[in-house]
User: Which sequence fits this backbone?
């Protein structure tokens, strides 16, 4: 089939499928063209009808260019230049503008006026005029760039007077201009600089005195400046995932300034061997993410009483949960111990966790259903999937059976060893369901369980 037919089909489709250009949209973006082996479609809201299966490969490149208005938001994909404005958006009908893919050169007066949120994702930008954001200078609240090839903070941000959120991620920023940072620091509340080629802690951040939330994840920082937050008034969230941190002393000193404000702390995917001591002094901390570290031990005196969520996922040096692992009258509601090497949980370890709703023990090295569970009375979710050493002996321990049966609704998932049957079935009420009743062949007997226990103890001691 020839290109001509594609053109015809495209044109028809455009005519039929074009969303009735919402009165509010200030752009005119329509058309679909074939040039050489490339088919470019604009503003389709469905695929054109297939009139050839393209067996001979005459069309090799297919690109959809589209701008969609929904409510106050305009999303443009694959543009190879800014479309012509048909309205300057004076009444602010479009507040959110997003560009996804494509190639842009942003000159002055090319964007609609009065924007609040501006986002560039996966776009290649040849230039941004220093006046480009003038027409939204007082309205722009949030600015994002992700996977954009642009080596610096745009000068155009110097004209913006009330930006509260900035989100730059997956960019190679080599030029951090002090003048722009100073301007931004006066108004920003939320800062995301993820994977932007920072190679040490950015000293300029201490002048962002109003920030509530800072995310510097995925940069090779290694350490925090000791006075990083000395001027910051109200830091509530700090994300430092995958930043090559390992020095607890450094963290203890630097985070001392925020112990009375911090609510969320994420220091996952780093090299900590112990929970940094400063954490125990944080009076508002509610969520702590320590997953993917090298934590060897949890001790109750490092866990603040009011902490609600603790994530220790994939700390492969963690083997034991002891009686003193959690503080008395702990507020923990969600605890993730998945993918650790935990093989034993002491009987009284969970006694302080009267508020625990969700417990993740999946992919651990437990070799029995821990009796410690019988101390938990408010669970809603218990995950024990993928535990390849989990034996379910017969007869069952009455305490476990009683405990499980006291629950009306508990989402319990996981299987006994060799995936013979589910833990739910093992602990079930009905005598016909439980593999431990009658002459079930599936059950693993007590002597085998004891044998495994013995082996594990010898092996681990
Ligand atoms: C913009 O929105 C205002 C109020 O929401 C409305 O009165 C006006 O007609 C809209 N303008 C256009 C061009 O649709
Ligand atoms: C939008 O573009 C199409 C095709 O290029 C044209 O026919 C139409 O008049 C334009 N509409 C406006 C409002 O400019
Ligand atoms: C702008 O983005 C923020 C978060 O990115 C969102 O909460 C807000 O609703 C957006 N503003 C508008 C007007 O849609
Ligand atoms: C961007 O567009 C402006 C105005 O249209 C032009 O003067 C400038 O040369 C362009 N820059 C690039 C890098 O293409
Ligand atoms: C943009 O704003 C700056 C500062 O107010 C001003 O100096 C400049 O002339 C403006 N540019 C345009 C094109 O309006
Ligand atoms: C920042 O941008 C990234 C990539 O677009 C997105 O996944 C993330 O949710 C954004 N974060 C905030 C706080 O807006
Ligand atoms: C970032 O850009 C600099 C200078 O252009 C270059 O030397 C460096 O390799 C780049 N880094 C990455 C991660 O692309
Ligand atoms: C600190 O910021 C939070 C928002 O993150 C806000 O709810 C709280 O009121 C602020 N506290 C003070 C003392 O300003
Ligand atoms: C850890 O940080 C402290 C305080 O910043 C510093 O004195 C010490 O030398 C650091 N230790 C290592 C091994 O880097
Ligand atoms: C275990 O459960 C947690 C919580 O749902 C989940 O994040 C994690 O991916 C699971 N672990 C594995 C190895 O599937
Ligand atoms: C098990 O049986 C007891 C009484 O026989 C009942 O109260 C309880 O709800 C049952 N539990 C389940 C999980 O069926
Ligand atoms: C239908 C049609 O135009 N087919 C052409 C596809 O491309 C090959 C090679 O370029 C031509 O030989 C066919 O005529």
Assistant:
């Amino acid at each position: 089939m020839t290109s001509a037919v594609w053109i015809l089909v495209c044109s028809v489709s455009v005519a039929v499928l074009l969303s009735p250009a919402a009165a509010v949209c200030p752009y005119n973006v329509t058309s679909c063209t074939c040039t050489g082996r490339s088919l470019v479609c604009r503003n389709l809201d469905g695929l054109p009808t297939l009139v050839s299966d393209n067996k001979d490969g005459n069309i090799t490149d297919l690109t959809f260019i589209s701008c969609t208005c929904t409510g106050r938001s305009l999303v443009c994909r694959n543009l190879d230049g800014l479309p012509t404005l048909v309205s300057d958006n004076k009444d602010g009908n479009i507040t959110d503008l997003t560009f996804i893919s494509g190639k842009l050169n942003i000159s002055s007066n090319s964007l609609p006026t009065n924007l609040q949120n501006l986002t560039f994702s996966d776009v290649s930008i040849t230039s941004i005029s220093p006046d480009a954001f003038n027409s939204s200078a007082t309205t722009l609240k949030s600015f994002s760039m992700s996977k954009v090839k642009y080596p610096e903070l745009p000068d155009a941000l110097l004209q913006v007077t009330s930006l509260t959120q900035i989100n730059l991620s997956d960019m190679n920023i080599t030029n951090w201009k002090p003048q722009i940072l100073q301007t931004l620091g006066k108004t920003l509340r939320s800062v995301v600089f993820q994977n932007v080629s920072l190679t040490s802690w950015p000293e300029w951040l201490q002048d962002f005195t109003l920030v509530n939330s800072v995310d510097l994840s995925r940069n090779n920082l290694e350490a925090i400046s000791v006075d990083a937050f000395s001027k910051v008034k109200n830091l509530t969230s700090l994300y430092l995932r995958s930043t090559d941190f390992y020095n607890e002393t450094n963290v203890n000193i630097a985070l001392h300034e925020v112990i009375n404000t911090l609510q969320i702390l994420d220091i996952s995917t780093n090299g900590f061997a112990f929970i940094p001591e400063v954490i125990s002094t944080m009076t508002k901390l509610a969520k702590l993410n320590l997953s993917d570290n090298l934590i060897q031990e949890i001790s109750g005196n490092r866990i603040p009483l009011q902490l609600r969520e603790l994530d220790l996922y994939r700390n492969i040096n963690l083997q034991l949960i002891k009686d003193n692992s959690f503080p008395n009258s702990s507020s923990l509601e969600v605890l993730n111990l998945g993918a650790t090497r935990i093989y034993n949980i002491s009987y009284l370890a969970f006694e302080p966790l009267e508020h625990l709703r969700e417990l993740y023990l999946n992919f651990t090295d437990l070799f029995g259903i821990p009796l410690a569970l019988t101390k938990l009375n408010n669970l809603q979710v218990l995950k024990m999937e993928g535990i390849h050493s989990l034996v379910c002996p017969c007869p069952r321990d009455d305490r476990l059976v009683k405990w499980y049966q006291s629950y009306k609704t508990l989402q319990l998932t996981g299987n006994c060893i060799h995936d013979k049957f589910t833990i739910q079935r093992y602990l079930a009420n009905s005598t016909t369901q439980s593999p431990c009743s009658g002459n079930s062949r599936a059950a693993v007997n007590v002597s085998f369980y004891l044998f495994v226990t013995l082996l594990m103890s010898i092996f681990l001691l």
